[in-house]
Specification:
Radius of gyration of chain A: 15 Å
Distance between the termini of chain B: 61 Å
CATH superfamily of the largest domain in chain B: Aminohydrolase, N-terminal nucleophile (Ntn) domain
Helix content of chain B: 25-40%
Order of helices and strands of chain A: HHHHH
Strand content of chain A: under 5%
Strand order of the largest sheet of chain B: 1-28-2-3-7-8-9-10-17-18-20
Largest sheet of chain A: none
Helix content of chain A: over 70%
CATH topology of the largest domain in chain B: Glutamine Phosphoribosylpyrophosphate, subunit 1, domain 1
Structural class of chain A: mainly alpha
Oligomer: heterodimer
Largest interface: A-B, 39 and 41 residues
CATH class of the largest domain in chain B: Alpha Beta
Number of domains of chain B: 2
Number of domains of chain A: 1
CATH architecture of the largest domain in chain B: 4-Layer Sandwich
Chain lengths: 116, 807
C-alpha cells in the first residue's frame, strides 16, 4: 500500500513539474515509468496510477476553476452535454485518472518478474 | 502470458492515447480530447484568474523607450509610449493578447483562407471570397500604404508588437478557439492589416442592387418601375441640410453611357449573399449654443454586427504627438472613433453604390479574351491556390480579370458567369501624402477644424460620414471617401461591358464632396440617409435610411440646453418615424372598411401606441406583423418571381406613400383572385393575419442575440431582453445594433461616456469577456477617462505592464 501511495505521489509531483512543458500524453508515459521504477504489481499500479491521475488533473482543474470563479467551466460544460463546472472538474480528473492508470498498468506489466 | 498481457495493455493504452490526441477523431466534431482537457495545456489554461492581476515587466528591444500600459478597473488599457511607432507596437501587442483568434478568423474569412483550418466545409466560401477579389484589393491597398514611410512605420511596428505576443505563446496559452478548432496562430503581417480593412469595405460598401433592379425593370416595364422605385424620398432630411449652397463648378461628364449601355436584359439571380441591409449608424454634433454647459457635444453609435468577441476594442493611446481615447479594431493600429482634449470625431457609413456589374462580350469560347469598343483584350488569369485541411493537394482556381474587375462566377450554368465586378474597394489608392492609417493618426493628434479637414483627405474606402466637434466650438460633417462620378441612373442596372463609355466617369473631387461646417441650425448629423438634397450636382444611387436621420434631425432641432444625459437619451430613443408615417395610414384604411377588427382590443391598444419600440410593449409586435403582412400582400407578384429570380423590392417608405396617396393602385390587387382589391382590403387581410399571432412582447418578437463568431452558443449572449428598432435611433435588431455608444462633451476637460456590448477580452474564460453586455442592454454608460499620465488618479489601475527596452 505504501508503495502504491508513493507511486501516486510520484505521479503527482512528476506530473506537476513535467506536464506543463510536455504534451498531455506524457502522463501515461510518466505513470508507466513510475510503475516500472517502483516495481508495482498490476493492481497496485492501476490504483496508484488512477489516484495519481485523478489528483493531478482533477486537483489542478479544481484550483484553476476556483480561481476563475467557474466562469469558463460553466461554458465548456455546455459543450460537454450540459454538465456543470464541478462535474467538468470531475470529468477532467477521471480522464487523467484513466490514462495514468492505463500507463501505470502497462508499466507494471513491462517488468518480466513482477506481479507473479 | 505476461508478455501477451503487456502487449495488450500497451496496445490499449497507446491506442486510446492516440485516439485522444486526434483532432475531430472518427469524424466527430470533438477537439483533441486529451490536449483539450489537460489542465496543463487545454481549456483550463484559459480560465483566467479573477482574484489577482499582477503587474508584469516585459522586455522588447524593438521599442525606442520604456513604455507602460495601465489597465483600469474595467480592464481598459491606457497606453503610454514615447513615439507613435512604440504606441503602435503596444497596441498590436495588447490587441493580440486580448483578441488574437478574432483577428485571425476575421482575416481568414475575408481573403478566403478558412479552409486551411476548417477543411472542405468552407471551401466554396473561400473560393467565392477569392473570386470577389478581396485579397487582390488588400494587396493593392497595401502596395500604396507601404510606399508612405509614415504608414509603413506604423504598420510594421503594429505587426512587430502583435508578433511579439504571438511568439511568446506556447500552445497552452493559445486562445481557446484555436484549441477547439485545433490550429495554431500565425504571424500577423501587413497584408493582414490591409485585409482587415477590406473586410470593413465588404461589410460596408459592397452592397449593390444592379441585378435585382435590372430584373424588376424587365418584369415590370420601365414606367411601373419608375413609379415603384423613385430615388428620392420627398420626406428625406439629408445629411447636408438643403440650405447649403454648392460652391464649386461641377466637373463635366464624359460622353453619355445611357441608353443601350444600361442593359435591361438577362434577368438573373444575385450572385452572392449581400451584406446585411441592417448595417447603419448614427452620429451627430451639437454646437455650444445649443448645450446647457456651453460646450459642444459629439455622439456616435455605429450599428455593426452584434457579436462576441465584440467588434470594438476600447483604448487610450498617449505619445508626445497625441493623447486620444476611443475604440479601435483588433487587428489594425489607431483609434477609429474617439476624442482628445481638443476635439472628437465619429463615423457612419455612406450608402453610395460603389459596386457595379458589367456584362462581358467574350471574343472566343475559351474566354481568354473579350471585346471592348470592338477591340480584343486578353483576360488576366490569376490562379488562386487554396490550401484545404485534410486534403493533400490544394485547390487551384483560375480567376479571369477584365478591365472592369474579376469575373466572379466560372460555372457556365451560373446565370452570372459572364459578368465582371467593378468595385471601388479593389482600386489601388490614388497617390496621397498619407493613407487610411494616417487619417486616424491625424485625428488623434488633431487640435481643431483644419486638422480634421486635412486628415480626411487620406480616406478613400469605405466612404464614411465623418462627424467632428472641437472645444473651440466648430462642428462639421463630411461625406468623405472616394466616390465614383456617375451619370444619371448609372450603376442602378447591369451595364454593357463591351463599351468603355459604360465605365465610371472618374471620381468626385475631394473638394466637391458634400460637407457642412458650423451650420446655422447648430447641429450636424447623419444616420445613413441620403447625403444631399436632389440639387447636389453629381448623381449617386445606393441604399439609404429613411427614418432615423429624419427623427434625429427633428429632435435635435427641437432641443435646447442640451446635456450629456439628453444625448444619451437620444441614442437610447426607440421611437420610430416608420410607424408614425405608416400606422395612421393603416388605421385609416382599416376604418374605411366595415370590419369588426376596428374595435378589437389589440387594435385599440395600437391606436394609443406612442411609436416607441420598448422591451415589454406588445403594440410594436403587432405593428410589425401587420406592416410586414400588408407589404407582402401588396407585392405578392414578387413572391411568385422570387422562386426563380432575385427581384428588387420597393422601399418601405414608397409603400407607405402609395397606401396613403394611391390606395386604388394596381399593385394592391391580388394576382391570385378574380376580384380587384384595393389598399383597404390588403390592409384588412394583413391585419387578420397579424392577429393570428399571439400577443408577445417586443423583446421576444425581435429576439436579439449576440452570437460568438464561431457560433458557439455557450460563448454567446442569447435572447436579450432589450427594446430598440432598426428604424429608431436605438437601432437594436436581431443581430445588429449599436456596437459602440459614445457621447463626448468638449468642455475644459472632455466629459466622455461610452459602452459596447462586450468587454476588452476575447477570452470566454475571462471576467472581462462580456461585462458590458448587461449595462448596454440597460442603457447605462461608462465614464471614459482620458488620463494625463500613468499616475493620473482618475482611475484605480488594476495592473500595469511595463515594457522595457532591456533587462
Amino acid at each position: 500500500m505504501q508503495k502504491t501511495l508513493s507511486a501516486t505521489l510520484a505521479i503527482l509531483v512528476g506530473g506537476a513539474v513535467g506536464q506543463a512543458l510536455l504534451a498531455w500524453w506524457s502522463l501515461p508515459v510518466l505513470a508507466a515509468l513510475i510503475a516500472l521504477l517502483f516495481r508495482l504489481r498490476p493492481r497496485p499500479a492501476l490504483l496508484g496510477g488512477f489516484l495519481g491521475g485523478l489528483l493531478l488533473w482533477g486537483g489542478y482543474a479544481a484550483i484553476l476553476n476556483a480561481q476563475n470563479n467557474g466562469i469558463l467551466s460553466a461554458k465548456i460544460g455546455v459543450l460537454f452535454g450540459g454538465i456543470g463546472g464541478p462535474l467538468l472538474v470531475l470529468v477532467t480528473g477521471l480522464f487523467g485518472a484513466v490514462f495514468a492508470a492505463l500507463g501505470a498498468w502497462t508499466g507494471s506489466l513491462a517488468r518480466g518478474d513482477s506481479g507473479s | 502470458m505476461r508478455q501477451i498481457r503487456f502487449f495488450l495493455a500497451l496496445l490499449l493504452t497507446t491506442g486510446l492515447t492516440i485516439l485522444a490526441s486526434l483532432h475531430q477523431p472518427l469524424g466527430s466534431p470533438l477537439p483533441a480530447t486529451g490536449q483539450f482537457l489537460s489542465p496543463f495545456t487545454g481549456f483550463w489554461q484559459n480560465a483566467e484568474r479573477t482574484d489577482q492581476f499582477p503587474d508584469e515587466d516585459l522586455v522588447f528591444p524593438q521599442l525606442s523607450a520604456q513604455s507602460e500600459v495601465l489597465f483600469d478597473e474595467r480592464g481598459v488599457p491606457h497606453i503610454f509610449a514615447q513615439s507613435n511607432e512604440d504606441a503602435a507596437f503596444l497596441q498590436g501587442y495588447i490587441h493580440a493578447r486580448d483578441r488574437l483568434w478574432q483577428m485571425d478568423i476575421s482575416v481568414r474569412a475575408t481573403i478566403g483562407r478558412l479552409s486551411e483550418v476548417m477543411g472542405e466545409r468552407t471551401l466554396e466560401r473561400d473560393r467565392l471570397q477569392r473570386r470577389k477579389g478581396l485579397l487582390w484589393g488588400a494587396e493593392n491597398a497595401l502596395k500604396k500604404w507601404m510606399s508612405s514611410p509614415e504608414e509603413a512605420a506604423m504598420i510594421n511596428a503594429y505587426c512587430e508588437g502583435a508578433n511579439a505576443y504571438i511568439n511568446s505563446l506556447s500552445p497552452a496559452g493559445y486562445p481557446i478557439e484555436f484549441k477547439l478548432l485545433g490550429y495554431a496562430p500565425e504571424p500577423w503581417t501587413p497584408l493582414h492589416i490591409a485585409a482587415f480593412y477590406k473586410s470593413m469595405s465588404e461589410a460596408l460598401c459592397s452592397r449593390h442592387e444592379d441585378i435585382p433592379a435590372t430584373n424588376a425593370r424587365l418584369l415590370l416595364g420601365d414606367s411601373l418601375f419608375q413609379v415603384l422605385y423613385p430615388e428620392h424620398n420627398p420626406k428625406q432630411s439629408p445629411i447636408i441640410p438643403d440650405v447649403v449652397q454648392w460652391d464649386f463648378n461641377p466637373l463635366p461628364l464624359a460622353p453619355s453611357a445611357t441608353g443601350d449601355s444600361m442593359l435591361s436584359s438577362g434577368a438573373t439571380r444575385t450572385p452572392f449573399e449581400l451584406p446585411s441591409p441592417f448595417i447603419g449608424s448614427n452620429n451627430w454634433a451639437v454646437s455650444a449654443e445649443k448645450t446647457a454647459n456651453g460646450a459642444p457635444i459629439l455622439c456616435n453609435d455605429p450599428h455593426l454586427q452584434l457579436r462576441l468577441p465584440a467588434v470594438w476594442y476600447e483604448v487610450q493611446m498617449q505619445t508626445p504627438d497625441y493623447n486620444a481615447y476611443g475604440v479601435s479594431f483588433p487587428g489594425v493600429p489607431g483609434i477609429i472613433i474617439g476624442f482628445n482634449k481638443d476635439m472628437a470625431w465619429g463615423v457612419t457609413n455612406v450608402g453610395h453604390d460603389v459596386l457595379d456589374w458589367y456584362r462581358i462580350d467574350w471574343a472566343n469560347p475559351e474566354k481568354t479574351a473579350y471585346r471592348v469598343d470592338g477591340e480584343e483584350k486578353p483576360v488576366r488569369e490569376v490562379v488562386e491556390v487554396i490550401q484545404v485541411r485534410g486534403r493533400g493537394e490544394p485547390l487551384r482556381d483560375t480567376v479571369r480579370y477584365t478591365i472592369w474587375g474579376p469575373v466572379t462566377f466560372d460555372d457556365p450554368e451560373h446565370p452570372q458567369h459572364d459578368m465582371a465586378m467593378r468595385w471601388l474597394a479593389h482600386d489601388e489608392p490614388a497617390e496621397k501624402p498619407f493613407y487610411a492609417l494616417g487619417v486616424f493618426t491625424r485625428l488623434m493628434s488633431g487640435q481643431g477644424l483644419s486638422d480634421y479637414q486635412t486628415a480626411l483627405r487620406g480616406w478613400e474606402s469605405p466612404a464614411q460620414n465623418f462627424v467632428f466637434a472641437s472645444k473651440a466650438n466648430d462642428i462639421a460633417i463630411t461625406v468623405n471617401g472616394k466616390l465614383p462620378l456617375k451619370e444619371d441612373q448609372q450603376g442602378r442596372f447591369v451595364q454593357d461591358g463591351s463599351r468603355s463609355a459604360s465605365g465610371w466617369k472618374g471620381f468626385i473631387p475631394h473638394e466637391h464632396l458634400p460637407r457642412v461646417v458650423n451650420p446655422e441650425r447648430g447641429f450636424v448629423s447623419s444616420a445613413n440617409q441620403r447625403s444631399t438634397a436632389p440639387d447636389y450636382p453629381y448623381y449617386y444611387n445606393g441604399g439609404f435610411d429613411d427614418y432615423r436621420g429624419r427623427y434625429i434631425n427633428r429632435r435635435l432641432a427641437e432641443m435646447d440646453n442640451i446635456t450629456v444625459e439628453d444625448m444619451k437619451a437620444l441614442q437610447l430613443d426607440s421611437r420610430s418615424l416608420k410607424p408614425e408615417d405608416a400606422l395612421p395610414v393603416l388605421l385609416q384604411l382599416l376604418d374605411s372598411t366595415a370590419s369588426e377588427l376596428r374595435t378589437d382590443e389589440r387594435v385599440k391598444a395600437l391606436r394609443n401606441w406612442d411609436y416607441n419600440f420598448t422591451r415589454d410593449a406588445e403594440a410594436p409586435s403587432l405593428f410589425e406583423d401587420w406592416f410586414e403582412a400588408a407589404y407582402a400582400q401588396a407585392f405578392d407578384e414578387f413572391t411568385v418571381w422570387e422562386d426563380s429570380l432575385e427581384v428588387l423590392q420597393p422601399e418601405e417608405w414608397r409603400f407607405i406613400e402609395l397606401l396613403a396617396t394611391q390606395p386604388g393602385h394596381a399593385i394592391f390587387d391580388h394576382q391570385s383572385t378574380p376580384e380587384v382589391e384595393t389598399a383597404a382590403e390588403v390592409v384588412l387581410t394583413a391585419l387578420e393575419k397579424a392577429l393570428e399571432q399571439p400577443p408577445v412582447s417586443w423583446a421576444e418578437h425581435k429576439s436579439t442575440d449576440i452570437g460568438h463568431m464561431a457560433m458557439i452558443p455557450a460563448f454567446s449572449r442569447l435572447d436579450l431582453d432589450v427594446g430598440g428598432y432598426g428604424d429608431a435611433p436605438n437601432a437594436i435588431k436581431p443581430d445588429h445594433g449599436p456596437s459602440w455608444r459614445m457621447v463626448v462633451e468638449l468642455g475644459e476637460r472632455p466629459n466622455a461616456w461610452g459602452v459596447f456590448p462586450g468587454g476588452p477580452s476575447g477570452n470566454p474564460g475571462s471576467a472581462f469577456y462580456d461585462p458590458m453586455v448587461t449595462p448596454w442592454v440597460e442603457g447605462r454608460y461608462n465614464r471614459l477617462h482620458l488620463l494625463d499620465s500613468p499616475e493620473d488618479a482618475a482611475v484605480k489601475p488594476l495592473y500595469r505592464l511595463t515594457f522595457k527596452t532591456a533587462e
